[in-house]
Amino acid sequence: MSIEVQSSEDPGAALAAVTTLRRLADQLEDSAVERAMRSGWSWPQVAEALGVTRQAVHKKHAKRLVAAGVVLRRR
Questions:
Q1: Cα dihedral: 58, 43, 19, 21 (round 10)
Q2: 17 touches 7 (CB < 8 A)
Q3: String of DSSP letters for 10-51
Q4: Full-model pTM
Q5: pLDDT one-digit tens code per residue, 15-40
Q6: Residue, of 47 and 72, whose pLDDT is higher
Q7: Where are the domains of the chain?
Q8: Burial bucket for residue 69 (CB in 10 Å: 0-12, 13-18, 19+)
Q9: DSSP, residue by residue, 49-70
Q10: Rg of the chain's alpha carbons, rounded to an integer?
Q11: pLDDT for 65 beyond 70
Q12: Quick check: 56 and 44 in contact, CB under 8 A?
């Protein structure tokens, strides 16, 4: 998927927009992963949906999910 974006004449503004989008994407991912895990999804299912490895998704989200009281499935 390719998205063409009109570039701003101000590189600082363009980079600030990228930073904002990354933060939003991270928040959306955190929410979606938590919702999936609360719904009984496994780490491999979440990883496949995100296009990453099980280990990567576990490393990124496990500690936060445990702190949020999510009961995590074991293999």
A1: -170
A2: no
A3: -HHHHHHHHHHHHHHHHHHHHHHHHHHHHTT--HHHHHHHHT
A4: 0.82
A5: 999 999 999 999 999 999 999 999 99
A6: 47
A7: 11-67
A8: exposed
A9: HHTS-HHHHHHHHHHHHHHTTP
A10: 16
A11: yes
A12: no
Structure tokens that stand for 57 in this block: 């998704």
Say what the pLDDT of residue 47 is: 98
Q: Which amino acid is residue 27, in one-letter code?
A: Q
Q: Give the number of other CB atoms < 10 A from CB of residue 47.
A: 18
Is the model's pLDDT at 1 over the cut of 80?
A: no
pLDDT score recorded for residue 10? 87
Assigned token pair, 18: 């990228």
Distance CA 28, CA 47 (A): 15
Residue with tokens 């990883």: 47
